[in-house]
Amino acid sequence: LILLRVLAFELHLPSPLQYLQRYLERAMEDVENVGEAFNEWDRDAKDEYGVQSGIMEGRLGSKCKQRAVDAEGRCKTYELASLFPTRAVALAIVYVIMEDNGLTIMKDIPEWVKDVGSGKVDSEDFEEVTEILRKT
User: Fold this and answer.
1) How far is it, in rounded angstroms, from Cα 67 to Cα 136?
2) CA 15: distance to chain centroid?
3) Predicted model pTM
4) Which residue has the higher pLDDT, 100 or 43?
5) Is it the case that residue 104 has pLDDT exceeding 90?
6) Angle at the Cα of 53 (from 114 to 89), degrees rounded to 5?
7) Alpha-carbon torsion (133, 121, 97, 53), positive or negative
8) In this predicted model, what pLDDT tens digit does every residue of 13-70 receive, in sequence order?
9) pLDDT given for residue 67 in this prediction
10) What pLDDT is stored for residue 2 in this prediction?
11) What are the CA-CA distances from residue 133 to residues 4, 18, 47, 80, 106 (Å)?
C-alpha cells in the first residue's frame, strides 16, 4: 500500500455510503403503500409540512447512513470488508433498516436483491451480511 502511494497510485476503496441513496430509492419503489407522492406537491406545501427534498434526508435515509457509518467502521477492521463487497453491505443495510421500520418487501428476496442491486449483488453475500447486521 505504501509502495502504491509512493508511486502515485491512488487506491480507492468503495464505501457502503456510496451506494445507499441509489439502493434506497430503488427499494422504496417496490414497497406497497408507503404514503403519498410528495414529489407532486408544490414547494410551499412541502415547506409547510416539513417534507424533505431527498430520500437520504428523511428518517430512513438518516438511519441507513448511521448504520453504514457503523458498518464502515467494521469494514476498516476487516470484519465485513474482507468477506463481502460493499454493494452487498449497502443493500443489506437498506433491507435491515426497512425491515426494522415495518416496511415489507413484496418480492422474493433473491429477486429483490437482483432488481434493487442491478444484478451486481450476490444473494448469498446479501443474506450473510443481513444476518451479521441483525446481530448488531
Assistant:
1) 10
2) 11
3) 0.72
4) 100
5) no
6) 30
7) positive
8) 678 888 888 888 888 776 654 555 556 666 676 565 555 556 777 778 888 888 888 7
9) 85
10) 66
11) 33, 18, 35, 10, 21
State how far the Cα of 56 lies from the Cα of 7, in Å rounded to an integer.
37
The 10 Å Cβ neighbour count of residue 50 is 6
Segment holding 106, helix H or strand E: none
How many whole angstroms separate alpha carbon 94 and alpha carbon 28? 10
At residue 133, the pLDDT reads 87
Do 36 and 102 meet the contact criterion of CB atoms below 8 Å apart? no
Q: What one-character-per-residue DSSP string does 34-83 give?
A: ----GGGS-HHHHHHHT--SSGGGSHHHHHHHHHHHHHHHHHHTTTTTTT
**Do 132 and 83 form a contact (C-beta atoms < 8 A)?**
no
Q: How far apart are CA 69 and CA 117, in angstroms?
A: 20
CB 117 within 8 A of CB 125: no
